[in-house]
Amino acid sequence: MSMKNFGRLVGTWHVTGGAEGTVTYRWLAGEQFLVQDVDLTQYGQPVTGIEVIGRLKPFGAKQPSEHVHSRYYDSQGNTFDYLYEIDGDTLTIWAGEVGSPAHYRGAFSADGNTVDGAWVYPGGGGYASTMTRTAG
What confidence tier does 54 reach under pLDDT thresholds 50, 70, 90? Predict the structure, then answer.
């Protein structure tokens, strides 16, 4: 899967559900990596940070990784690692590794301006989450 498939995330999105606020996805020069700027409130607490999304290609490697990885950095000094997939109109974000019991799965609307889905956590937890494009 090409990183170009992730271009449909580029723009600013209003997020509702278990976390509320705004996220913005933008390309770095060369369109090999997306950066997500996060400004949300979850459980009454601010959630702010950045996420860099792309294929891993260590210095000297001939090919990038098969999967699209990300690392999220928050304002509290925490980091989280994810794997991203887009299959047709389905966006899946795996926590840590593909097949993880903690993940997000959402579907793009026909016009591409809404992604409706849910975060699932081990033990039955999680929350619904909808992103609606406001610019981009």
Answer: very high
| Closest CA relative to residue 131, chosen from 43, 53, 45, 36 | 36
Report how far apart, in Å, the C-alpha atoms of 6 and of each of 20, 47, 60, 100, 127 are: 22, 23, 25, 21, 23
Q: Per residue in 59-77, pLDDT tens? A: 999 999 999 999 999 999 9
β-partners of residue 71 are 52, 81
